[in-house]
Amino acid sequence: MKMWSIWLVGALLASLYLYRRTTSPLTKIPGPWYTKFTGLCLKYHEFTAGRRLFIHQLHKKYGPVVRLSPDEVSFTSLEAIREIYASGGSGYDKTEYYDLFRQYGIKTMFSTLDKQAHSHRKRELADRYAMTNILREPHVSAIKERAQVFVQKCHEFKGSIDVYSLLHCYALDGVTNFMFSPGGLRSLDNARDFDMMEELTYHQSLQKNLLHYYLPTCASYFPSWLIPRPSPMTNVYAIKMAAQKTPDEYSLVARLAKKGSPLSHMEVAAECKDHLAAGIDTTGDGLCFLMWELSKPEHSQIQDRLYEELRLTSTDTPLDNLPYLEAVIKEALRCTPPIPMSFPRYVPSGGRTIAGYFMPESTIVSCQPYTVHRFDEEVFPEPDRFNPDRWLEEKGANDRNRLFFAFGTGGRGCTGRNLAMVEMKVLLREVYSHLQSSLAPDMAACMDLDDQIISARPKDQMCKLVFESRSRV
Ligand code: HEM
């Protein structure tokens, strides 16, 4: 082929590309000019753990709808949340991003992309996460017993104590005792189980995960040090527990592996391992951010008010009758949602209009809790301030609750929400009925949100607090 014809083909392709980019309906969407042509800037921010803040800044500059790349748009309004995540019940299909969350290479409920397949799987287990099941005596007793061990550790230890690690133990023990009842881990007081908490919690996997996502065909050639979050102990554990012979009939594993279940043993193990992973960092990080906020000197009044509520109610007051406790938890999940980043979805065939803009089919659309919880300052005034009282005001309560997005929404919202809320409430009631916490003198760890693949954790993975008995203060 002559040189000039190569140039001609190149010029034609470039013109076609520019034509497509400049005539796509997405060009009308506010956003930096370069996002019409390339997603490289977004990828740069993803690889440097800055995606969430990059998107947040774009929303602050361009408004509630912003183009992130030639085929990706972020939204932050209630209207968009309802359309993307709840239209028709479960909203739009997930993108291949969720393939990263397969377990043993098997699709779980969380990593199933298509709505129909997802709803089949959900039918197999949803009743286990109903509040009536979670509040069954054996489940609540197991959670309470773990919370009491946590308090005992805080009591025993006179100096500063790293609650980050202990709270991850508590979350791991809570979720495994629920899933595998009457079995389950005791990482708060058993060294071998503690190792499993460490395996699941202390890892650097962001870039490795992104490489797997962007280069899926090369992934099988990657060297072992590029495998994200290897968890050999947990792998063996979940497979073993999925084969339990006599689990409590109300446990998750009993439901998944019941006689006639359509799931194979490995599918049951994968589902359980996924819930175990979903339940440790989210609840552990959420509680850690919360206790850190409560322990700041400027929030001592908040802690005192919580103590007052707990002191004036008996220990068998239902967890739902503690409004200040609920407000404290919601405010922590609003300020520092453990999953603060975008939940990506594909626009269905034929395209859809979202928040007034037409989106062609297969556009990737999403909302991120971090921005949803801060963007509308009429609903959340002083959005960066930790202020539990905002949840107790009657005025604007509906708007606040509708924009509370920490657990997602719609048919693919968090299945474990009830379990997480019960675990958090039980622990905080046990701790703050008896103890007062403050930042330890040697607490120098950075508590900024450090983005992982979809979740975020305290940057230094450490939070040192000191506890004093309430009777002595
Ligand atoms: C504070 C604690 C928690 C938070 C903030 C949280 C948040 C979320 C969010 C935002 C999603 C939707 C993500 C998306 O659409 O991409 C989700 C899904 C899910 N969560 Fe949670 N979660 C928490 C605790 C738990 C616990 C304790 C469990 C289980 C033991 C759990 C199990 C799940 C599962 C199975 C899904 C997938 C649901 C589906 O695809 O239908 N989560 N969670």
CATH architectural grouping: Orthogonal Bundle
Structural class by secondary-structure content: alpha+beta
Which radius of gyration do the C-alpha atoms yield? 24 Å
Proportion of residues in β-strands:
5-15%
Q: How would a crystallographer describe the biggest sheet?
A: 4 strands, mixed
How many independent structural domains?
Answer: 1
In DSSP terms, counting alpha (H) and pi (I) runs of 4 or more, how many helices? Answer: 18
The level 1 CATH classification is Mainly Alpha
- Shape by Cα distribution: globular
Task: Tell me, rounded to a whole number, the average pLDDT.
Answer: 94
Walk across the major sheet and give the strand order. 1-2-7-4
Helix content range of the residues, please? 40-55%
Q: Identify the bound ligands.
A: protoporphyrin IX containing FE
Euclidean distance between termini CA atoms: 87 Å
CATH topology: Cytochrome p450
Spans where pLDDT lies below 50 across 5 or more residues: none
Total strands: the figure is 11
Cofactor: heme
GO molecular function: heme binding; iron ion binding; monooxygenase activity; oxidoreductase activity, acting on paired donors, with incorporation or reduction of molecular oxygen
Keywords: Heme, Iron, Metal-binding, Monooxygenase, Oxidoreductase, Signal
Binding site for heme: 414
Note the main attributes of this structure:
473 residues, iron ion binding, alpha+beta, three-stranded antiparallel β-sheet, signal, 11 strands, binds protoporphyrin IX containing FE, globular, oxidoreductase activity, acting on paired donors, with incorporation or reduction of molecular oxygen, Cytochrome p450, Cyt_P450_E_grp-I
